[in-house]
C-alpha cells in the first residue's frame, strides 16, 4: 500500500526590508511580503535579478549563434537548400513539445521554402513507431525527393538512421534537447543545448525553443525574405515550453513570458480575426483565456498530447495550430477534444488497475516500481506512472504487453538505437517510466540496456521496450541498482509547502503576488500554500462531462474552506476525488491559489489534505461530535474471515457496496448505544469483508442478460429477481435499468408473485430505438463497477470519516 506522505515546510528566511520594498513596487495593491518571501527563498536576491525575472523587457536573450559552429553549419545548409530549391522535410515528434516544434519550423521555414512543395513534415505514429528517426519513414521521404531532413525535439541518438539517410543522399540537421550521443553523429549540424555549459541561459531549452532559435538565426541571416515577424511564433513556443515541463529559467522563462502575452492577445481578438483560430477554439473548449501558464499545462498541453495517445497519428495537430481556416480548425479542435475525453477515461481505468496492483507490493522492499499488464493502452502509461511516482516517492515503470505481436514498435520517450535484442522475435512489452526525488531515471534504465530492446528519454522521464520474458530480471536488476546507489537513504513520498497562510489571506491580493512568479515550472514551481486548522463545508462532487455533454469517468469535488481567521468561506476544488474523501472536522491542507476564468472567481486547488496535527476531531463540534468508529469497524477486505461468526463478534458485509448509504445502513445496525456515549459498550462490530471485484466487461453483462431473457422466453420459465442478480452480478438499481433496456428491444417483463415472467416478441423496428436504453444500462454498469472498485481500495480512515458524518 502507498506510504503516508511526508509534508515539508520550506525553510523561510525573512527577506530584508529593502527587498520587500523593491517587490512591493510590482504589487501596488498589496504588501508584497509573500511574493518577496518566495522570490528570496528561490534565489532572487538583488535588484538586477528581480527586474529581469519579473519584467521580460529587462532581460537580454541570448543570440541563436551562441550555439556556435553547429548553428553556422545549419544555416549554411539551409541557405544551400534555398539556393538550390531543394525539398526539405521536417521530422517532428508526437508530444506537445514535438508538435509545437514542428509547427514553429513549418511556419518559420515556410517563410523561406514553399509549403507542401519545397517543405513537408512528418510526425511518427505513437502507437506504431518510436520517437526519433526510422528507416521506413526515411525511405518514404527519399521517394518524395527530399534532400534535407530537419528534426525537432528528437534525433540526437539516431546514429544508424542518420547514416542510412546519408546513404540515400539525404542530409540531416538535428535540433533536439534530449540525451547526447557519445560521439557527434554524421549530420550536417546538430543543435542541442546539452552541448552548452549547464549554467548557460540556453541550456534548458525544450525542443520547440531550439527550433525557434534555428528560425531566428535564419531570419537574421536572410533578413529581407520573411513576410511575417518572427514574434508570431512565440505563442507556439510558450505552449511547447510549458507543456514539456522544462526548467523555466534563462531564455526559457523569457520566451514563455513573451509567448503567453501573444497567446492572450490573439485569443482576445474576434474568432474570425484570430491568427491561430485552432488554438483559440481549443482554449474555448477548455474554458480558458490563454493568459495563464496553467491554461497550457492543464488545457492546451494535455489536449495536444491526447491525440497521439489515443489515435497514434497526431499529424493533423500541426494543421490545427498553424492553419488560418477557422472552419477546418474548429473541426480539428473537436476531434482533439474527443481524444482528450477518451484519454481521461482510459487514464482513470488504468489508475484504478495500477492502484489494485500496488496493494500487492511491499513498498518497504521496493525501490523502483515495475508493473505490467496485457490490457493497458501504452498511450496513457506515462501519465499514470507520473502520478504513482508522486504518490509513492519511487520511480515508476509501467509496461503494456498489449499488441505485443509487433516487433520494433516503440513507446514512451524512446529514441535510442536498438540493442541486439532488436533482432530477436516478439513478444515485446512497451512502456513509460517517470522519476521522483531527483533520481536519474534515464541512467537507471540505460544501465540495464543489455536487457532492453529500445530506450530513451531524460532524467525525469523515459520510454522503453523489452522482451516480456526479461521483465522479472529487469525488475530485480533495476531495484538492486537503485538500492545500492541510495545506501541507507530511504525513498518517501513528500510534498513541500512554500508558505503558511490563512483563509483570510486567500483572494485577489495574494493571487496577484503569486502571479509575479509566473510562468511557473520546474525550478520555479507553482507556490504551494499550507492552510492549518481549517475545515470544509458545502462539499459536492460530480463526474466531469465533455463539451458534448457525454459522461466521462473523471471526478472533481468542490467545497468551501473555512478557518478561524475569517467569517467568510473561500471556494475550492479537488480534482479526481469524491467529496466524501474530505476529512470531517479540523484538518491541514496544501493548496494552490488559482483564478477560474469560466466562473470568474478566485479559488484554491487542493493538492493534499490530512487531519490537523493541532486540533482534535471534535474541537469545533463539542458534544455534538460523531462517535469514534475506528474500533467499531474491522477491515477484513481481501482476507480469510471464516473464523468470525456474526453471532459472536461481528456483523459481516461480504457484498461490496456501491455507495456510502449502503455502508451507513449496515453501520446503523451495529450502533445501539446513545449518541452521547463516550465509549463503545454493547455494540456489535462491523466487519467489512468484501473481496476485490472481478468484473466482467459491461458489454458481456448485457449479452448475458439478453441471453437469459431469450432463454426464459423460449422455455416459459420464471425467475426471481435474486436469481437474476446472482447470475449477472449487478445491483437492484442497475437491474431496473437493464429491464428497461430489454423492453426497448421488444421484451415484456411481468411480475407474478415473487417471480418475473419474460417474453419476447421480435420487433426489428424497435431495435433502432434501443441504442439509447442499452447505453444507459452500460453506463449504469460502468458506474457501479467504478464505485465497487473504489470501495475495494478506499482506506479504512476514509470509511471511518464518512461513516462518522451521518446522524446516528
Indicate the topology.
Elements: E1 6-9, H1 17-24, H2 33-41, H3 47-54, H4 69-84, E2 87-91, H5 96-109, E3 119-122, H6 135-143, E4 146-152, H7 159-167, E5 171-175, E6 189-191, H8 207-221, H9 234-243, H10 251-267, H11 277-285, H12 293-311, H13 316-322, H14 326-358, E7 369-373, H15 381-392, E8 396-400, E9 428-434, H16 441-446, E10 454-458, E11 461-467, H17 471-486, E12 494-497, E13 499-501, H18 508-515, E14 529-545, E15 551-562, E16 570-575, E17 587-596, E18 601-611, E19 633-635, E20 650-653, H19 660-670, E21 685-688, H20 698-715, E22 718-720, H21 721-728, H22 732-744, E23 747-752, E24 755-760, H23 764-767, H24 771-793, H25 796-804
Parallel strand pairs: 1-12, 2-3, 2-4, 4-5, 5-6, 7-8, 13-14, 16-18, 19-21, 20-21
Antiparallel strand pairs: 8-9, 9-11, 10-11, 14-15, 14-17, 15-16, 17-18, 22-24, 23-24
Helix pairs in contact: 1-2, 4-8, 5-8, 5-9, 5-13, 8-9, 9-10, 9-12, 11-14, 12-14, 13-14, 14-15, 20-24, 22-24
In short:
It contains 25 helices and 24 strands. By secondary structure, it is an alpha/beta fold.
Amino acid at each position: 500500500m502507498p506510504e503516508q506522505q511526508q509534508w515539508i515546510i520550506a525553510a523561510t528566511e525573512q527577506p530584508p526590508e529593502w527587498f520587500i520594498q523593491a517587490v512591493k513596487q510590482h504589487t501596488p495593491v498589496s504588501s508584497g511580503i509573500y511574493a518577496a518571501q518566495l522570490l528570496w527563498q528561490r534565489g532572487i536576491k538583488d535588484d538586477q535579478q528581480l527586474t529581469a525575472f519579473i519584467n521580460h523587457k529587462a532581460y537580454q536573450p541570448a543570440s541563436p549563434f551562441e550555439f556556435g559552429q553547429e548553428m553556422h553549419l545549419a544555416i549554411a545548409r539551409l541557405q544551400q537548400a534555398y539556393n538550390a530549391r531543394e525539398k526539405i522535410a521536417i521530422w517532428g515528434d508526437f508530444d506537445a513539445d514535438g508538435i509545437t516544434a514542428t509547427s514553429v519550423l513549418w511556419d518559420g521555414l515556410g517563410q523561406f521554402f514553399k509549403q507542401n512543395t519545397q517543405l513537408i513534415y512528418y510526425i511518427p505514429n505513437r502507437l506504431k513507431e518510436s520517437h526519433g528517426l526510422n528507416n521506413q519513414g526515411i525511405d518514404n521521404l527519399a521517394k518524395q525527393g527530399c534532400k534535407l531532413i530537419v528534426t525537432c525535439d528528437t534525433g540526437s541518438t539516431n546514429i544508424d538512421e542518420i547514416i542510412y539517410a546519408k546513404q540515400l543522399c539525404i542530409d540531416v540537421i538535428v535540433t533536439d534537447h534530449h540525451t547526447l550521443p557519445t560521439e557527434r553523429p554524421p549530420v550536417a549540424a546538430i543543435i542541442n543545448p546539452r552541448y552548452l555549459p549547464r549554467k548557460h541561459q540556453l541550456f534548458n531549452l525544450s525542443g520547440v525553443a531550439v527550433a525557434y532559435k534555428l528560425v531566428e538565426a535564419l531570419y537574421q541571416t536572410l533578413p529581407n525574405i520573411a513576410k511575417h515577424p518572427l514574434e508570431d511564433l512565440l505563442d507556439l513556443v510558450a505552449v511547447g515550453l510549458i507543456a514539456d515541463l522544462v526548467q523555466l529559467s534563462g531564455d526559457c522563462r523569457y520566451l514563455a513570458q513573451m509567448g503567453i502575452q501573444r497567446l492572450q492577445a490573439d485569443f482576445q481578438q474576434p474568432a474570425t480575426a484570430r491568427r491561430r483560430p485552432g488554438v483559440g477554439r481549443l482554449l474555448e473548449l477548455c474554458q480558458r483565456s490563454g493568459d495563464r501558464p496553467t491554461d497550457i499545462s492543464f488545457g492546451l498541453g494535455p489536449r495536444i498530447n491526447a491525440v497521439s495517445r489515443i489515435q497514434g497519428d497526431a499529424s493533423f495537430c500541426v494543421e490545427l495550430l498553424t492553419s488560418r481556416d477557422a472552419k477546418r480548425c474548429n473541426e480539428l479542435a473537436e476531434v482533439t477534444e474527443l481524444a482528450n475525453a477518451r484519454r481521461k477515461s482510459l487514464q482513470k481505468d488504468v489508475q484504478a488497475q495500477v492502484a489494485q496492483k500496488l496493494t500487492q507490493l511491499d513498498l518497504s522492499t521496493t525501490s523502483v516500481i515495475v508493473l505490467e499488464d496485457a490490457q493497458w493502452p501504452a498511450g496513457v502509461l506515462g501519465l499514470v506512472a507520473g502520478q504513482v511516482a508522486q504518490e509513492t516517492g519511487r520511480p515508476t515503470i509501467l509496461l503494456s504487453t498489449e499488441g505485443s505481436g509487433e516487433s520494433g514498435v516503440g513507446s514512451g520517450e524512446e529514441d535510442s538505437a536498438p540493442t541486439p535484442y532488436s533482432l530477436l522475435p516478439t513478444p515485446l512489452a512497451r512502456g513509460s517510466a517517470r522519476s521522483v526525488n531527483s533520481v536519474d531515471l534515464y541512467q537507471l534504465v540505460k544501465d540495464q540496456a543489455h536487457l532492453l530492446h529500445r530506450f530513451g528519454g531524460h532524467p525525469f522521464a523515459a520510454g522503453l521496450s523489452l522482451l516480456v520474458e526479461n521483465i522479472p530480471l529487469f525488475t530485480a536488476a533495476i531495484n538492486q541498482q537503485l538500492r545500492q546507489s541510495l545506501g541507507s537513504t530511504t525513498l518517501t513520498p513528500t510534498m513541500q509547502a512554500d508558505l503558511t497562510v490563512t483563509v483570510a489571506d486567500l483572494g485577489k491580493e495574494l493571487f496577484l503576488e503569486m502571479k509575479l512568479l509566473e510562468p511557473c515550472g520546474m525550478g520555479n514551481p507553482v507556490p504551494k500554500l499550507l492552510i492549518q486548522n481549517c475545515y470544509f463545508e458545502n462539499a459536492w462532487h460530480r463526474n466531469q462531462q465533455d463539451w458534448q455533454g457525454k459522461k466521462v469517468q473523471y471526478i472533481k469535488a468542490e467545497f468551501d474552506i473555512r478557518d478561524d481567521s475569517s467569517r467568510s468561506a473561500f471556494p475550492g476544488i479537488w480534482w479526481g476525488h469524491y467529496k466524501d474523501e474530505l476529512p470531517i472536522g479540523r484538518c491541514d491542507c496544501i493548496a494552490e491559489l488559482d483564478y477560474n476564468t469560466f466562473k470568474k472567481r478566485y479559488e484554491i486547488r487542493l493538492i493534499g489534505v490530512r487531519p490537523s496535527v493541532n486540533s482534535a476531531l471534535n474541537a469545533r463540534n463539542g458534544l455534538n461530535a460523531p462517535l469514534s468508529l475506528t474500533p467499531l469497524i474491522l477491515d477484513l477486505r481481501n482476507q480469510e474471515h471464516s473464523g468470525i461468526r456474526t453471532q459472536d463478534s461481528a456483523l459481516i458485509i461480504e457484498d461490496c457496496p456501491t455507495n456510502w448509504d449502503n455502508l451507513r445502513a449496515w453501520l446503523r445496525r451495529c450502533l445501539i448505544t446513545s449518541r452521547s456515549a463516550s465509549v463503545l459498550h454493547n455494540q456489535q462490530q462491523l466487519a467489512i469483508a468484501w473481496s476485490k471485484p472481478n468484473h466482467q466487461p459491461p458489454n458481456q453483462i448485457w449479452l448475458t442478460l439478453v441471453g437469459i431473457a431469450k432463454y426464459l422466453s423460449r422455455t416459459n420459465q420464471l425467475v426471481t429477481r435474486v436469481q437474476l442478480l446472482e447470475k449477472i452480478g449487478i445491483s437492484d438499481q442497475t437491474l431496473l435499468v437493464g429491464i428497461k433496456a430489454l423492453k426497448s428491444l421488444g421484451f415484456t417483463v411481468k411480475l407474478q408473485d415473487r417471480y418475473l415472467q419474460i417474453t419476447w416478441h421480435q420487433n426489428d423496428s424497435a431495435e433502432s430505438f434501443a441504442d439509447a436504453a442499452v447505453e444507459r444500462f452500460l453506463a449504469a454498469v460502468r458506474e457501479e463497477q467504478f464505485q465497487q472498485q473504489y470501495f475495494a481500495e478506499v482506506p479504512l480512515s476514509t470509511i471511518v470519516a464518512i461513516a462518522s458524518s451521518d446522524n446516528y
